[in-house]
Every structure is written in C-alpha cells, then in structure tokens.
Predict the 3D structure of the following.
Amino acid sequence: MNSIIEAIHKGIEKSGVDRKKISIPSDIPFEPETVKSLGVDYFQVPRGRAIAFGSGLKLGNPDLKVIPVVGDLMTLGGNHFVHGTRRNMELLVLCINNFVYHKIAGKSVSVVTEAFSPYSTFEEPFNFPHLGNSCGAVYTARWTALHTSELAESIAEALHKRGMSMIEILAPGPSYYRYITHLDSELMQFYFDNSILKNNEDPRNVAITADKKIVVGKFTDKERPTFIDSYNTQHKKILGDEFTPHGPVFDKAGGGNG
Amino acid sequence: MKADQKSVLTGVYYIDGDVAAGYGALAAGCKFVAGYPITPSTEAFEAVCHRGPKVGTVFIQMEDELGSISAILGAVWSGVKTMTITSGPGYSLMQEAIGFGAMLETPFVLLNIQRGGPSTGVPTKTGQADMMQSRWGSHGDYEVIAIAPDSPQEMFDYTIKAFNLAEKYRCPVMIMSDECVGHMTEKVVIPDADKIYVEPRRFYTGPAADYRPYKPDPDLVPKMAKAGEGLNLYITGIVHDENGYPVSDEKYKSIYVKRLVDKIRLNKNEIIELKEEGTDGADVIVVSYGISSRVAVKGVEMARQKGVKVGTLRLVTVWPFPDDRINELAKKTKAFVVPEINYGQVVYDVARCAHGHASVVLVPHGGAGVHNPDDVADAIEFAVKQEKPLEGVHEFKTRLEKSVFEGGFKLKE
C-alpha cells in the first residue's frame, strides 16, 4: 500500500493540482500520518460507498478534485461505479485489486487467497478496464504495485481528465494481509515476471486470467461531457435565464474551465 | 440568519405535504438533494427537481438509496446543506450511512414519508411503524432528532426547523412524516424570507494548524469544516479522538461516543417541542404524533361530550423523547391513551416514563389506513374507568381488529 501512496503523492505533484482541493474518500483505511503527508482531505467511508460519497463532494463543490479509493473488487458499491461512470461524474477512481477473488497463472498468487479461501479460489474476477470502458469512462489504465512511476504518471494525467477516470492497481491489501500471507518480495517478483506492457490495448483483451500475463498500461483516453456539463446544458436549454449554471462552466472553444 | 429570498417561494399555496416539505428544504437553504424515487415520497423529490435548478439547488437521482445518502453526506462535507427523501424500504437501505453520518457529526435532513410495512408493505398507504427504526436503526450508540409534522403547513415549517436543528447539533434529523400527511392537500402559507430563521453552519474560522475536527464547544457540539480549505481533514467512521484520529481504547470510546449521545440528551429541553392542550387536571391524556394526532382530535371531542376530562399531548419532536414531561403528567392523570399506526412503538416509551403511575393504553392500527375516532373515544372511556393503573401497556381492541379477528390471535393451550 505504501508504494501506492507514494505514487499518489508523486502523481499529484506532477499534475500541478492544488493539494488543498483534493479529497480522497476511501473505504480502505489510510494512516493519519499518510494523509497528513499527502496534504489532502481524507474521508474513510462505509465499505463500498467511496464513489457515491465522492459524487456528493464533487456536486457540492465542483472545484474539488475527488479521488475515491475503492477495494475488494468493488463487491460492495460496484453499482456506484457503473452509474457514476455512465453519468461521467468527474472522479478519479483508484481501484485497489488485492486478488481476493483471483487466481493468476495457476500459482504463487493463489497464496494471497489462503486466508479467506483455504482451498484456493475458483471465481472469475472482473476485467475492470473493460467494465469502465464499456460504461463510458474517459480514462482507464492498469498498473501493479511494482509500476509506481507509471502509476504516478497515470494519476497526473487522469487528474486533468474531465469525467470518470479509473485506474486499476494490482496490489496486496493492508500490511496485515501481507504479513499473514508472507508475500512481499515474492509478489514483486511475480509482478515483474508476469506483467506485460500494452498501451492502448483494446480493454476487451486485458482480462486477468490464469494462463496469460497481466496486461498493464493505459487503455482508454477519450472525451465526453461530464455530468455537470450535461446538467447545465439541459437546464439552460429549457429554463434559459432562470437557470444559473452549477460550478465552473466548460468552454469548448477555450478548451478549459471558464 | 435570514433565509435567502431567492429560495423562498413566498405566497399562499394549495399543495400537498410532500411538496411543502420540498419547498421548505429550498427555503432552509438546502443546496443539494440526492434521492431515489419511492412512493409515497416522490412528490417531495419532484418539487425539488422542479424548483431546485431555478434557485441554485442541485439534485441528482442516484442509483439507489445507499448512493443517495452517501452522496448527501459527501456534499455536507463539501460545505452545503443537504437532504434526502425516501420511504420504508429506502429508509432501511440507508441505515448504515445514518450511523456513519451520526459518527462524523454530519448535519443532514432525512425526509421519511412512512408507508405501510414491513418489507414492501403497502406502498401507497400510510403507516407509522418506522419510529423505532428512526431512533436506533443503525448499529452502535447514537442519538438523532425526529420530528413528526401533521399538516402540509407543518411540513413546510418543520422542514426548515429540521435543517436548523441539524446545523445546531450536527446530527441527523429525521422528518418522520407519513403518507397521509405527505399526500394531504391543504393551504400552505410561505412567508417572506425575512420571517424565516435559518441556522448558519458552525464553521471553524481559526488558524488551520489549530483545527481539531471534534473539539466540542460548551454545548458539546464541535465546529464544522469543509473539504478544500487546506485543513488536511482526516475524517473517519472509526471511533476517533478530538483530532479525528482512530482510537480503540475503551477509555476513548466512552469519552467520544458518549458525547454523540449526550449532545442530544443534555440539550433535549431546547430540542423538544410539544403541543399540549387541556392537560391540567385531565383524567386521560391522549399522546400522539403525525397523522394520528389529527384523527385523535375527533376522538377527544367525542369523549369530552360524554363528560370525560381529556387532554392532548402532541409529540412534535418524537426523539429525543420528553421523559420528564410524561413522568410529571403520569403523577397527575389516570391514564395515557396512545393511538399510533403500528402495533406499539412510541407507546412503550410512554409506559417507561409513566413508571406505573398511570395506565397506558395503546390504540393500535396495522397501517394502510388511519384510526377510527370512535376507537380513540372508546379507549379514552375505557381508560378512565380503571380503578387503578393497568400493568404494562394495555392493547385496546379496536373495531377493525374485532371485526377481523374476533378479539385477536390467541396462543393454543
């Protein structure tokens, strides 16, 4: 987890976004020291509700940059992701995938599941970039805890995307988890041996399966109106001067926030 | 602070309770509403969707009630006033986040237009069976404020009051209305903005380095902050100390969780609002709330015509419960009659506070309708005839119950 925090830190640094304006709602607990060092506002929310909570933060104050951090394959709250993406809510979702539901390459990583699946796992995971892309995400990418500099680049880039961005991060869970599963350098070596970089790969082809290498890279990068854009356009069209647009208005000609 | 005239639709209207609550929220300065439509609360959400964009109130129809309540909690922390609107099944889905809101001391208003339950129940008809759920529906210790309006005018007035109480005590405030009041159409007078008091948020204004999210003021309520101000907030649903940092020691739990309870309990005299009529020297006092209080009026009138001295006590705020006042009245009266549209919820609190000094008679109703005033009148007459206080809560057999069950179910010997 620490390497991911570091990547978030570097990503924010690179993006040039004012840290004061960044809020991180998360269903994964962060240490207070971590949050203080990031210099952001942090909310630890009930399991699975980070994206919905983040939507409220963004709609309440559109000046905020909101980075919901979600875990556990979004088993709780996956629907918030699907609909948040459909609406193109302006959020950067960091989806920490800790393999609770995975079997990869038929070995090694099945170790990670020992605690909760003593007889190994048999379920299929999501293909997150494909899920995000098909729901309409404007940015999807996948990195592992080994690819910290690429992850930081991705975060910096996604922070400037207007709309729902999603970065899947393959990583072990909390340190406790790593402790009980005796996975540390072993996992990093596993990532090194079993990941393959394919930028702009069709998200349909990046499912994590037992017999293929893990595809990492940036898969989606496109534009479409955000929820707030559509909200403003629609009400302006019908209500005219009776309606005052909400938040900074996106000026297409100027290409930035007006 | 006075309300913003732009958000106050001053005028005389003929509208239903749901719409009046929606207009009340706008008048109170609510700037964000997230909801998921559910009968019989839909009209309130529609009112906000219709008027909101004209007065700068943003609305969103979320994917479900879990999303709705999570979104409004997020919006509160971005600095605005918020509300969500629901009914029975949606209310059940919201429970986890209500406790989260209470733990974070997040001010928000939840409008519950109660319908028949349990489960899907009778979606289009009335009920008052969520009252206990409103008090402790989420896990863990916390206290909320619950208000039960009984007319469209009150739906407007008390929605504003609900926002004010939420800001003052930084807690969830439930408007526990019901389908009858929600769909009842009556005259509603919306005054000028300068006649409406709006409680401002108690924002922290000191230096950022000194900010402690949960350091209480003398009234036990801490100052509020918002995201994006450089305060480096650490806000968590884990039991936390004054800095907001997680603690798990039993000593801390008793300090910080106790305050969530005490800030309501110790301020209850300022929060509680009751409407009493003729309780001095009354032999029977009818305790009621919401739509049941309006039905009870007729029953009380009938009993008075027969010469019984009856008083009425209406719980405008149901939670926190007026323990002291009920206890005081119990020593002076023979009986309390409690009509409510459930099989006994608030009546048990009346019995608890009566301490056996007076009989407590429940006039139940299963929902999907309101009481027959004759039953309320009969229950009053029955109660006044008792030589000494009845034990526990006596369930009065209403005409409806008798006609359906012939005296109700009995366990086989």
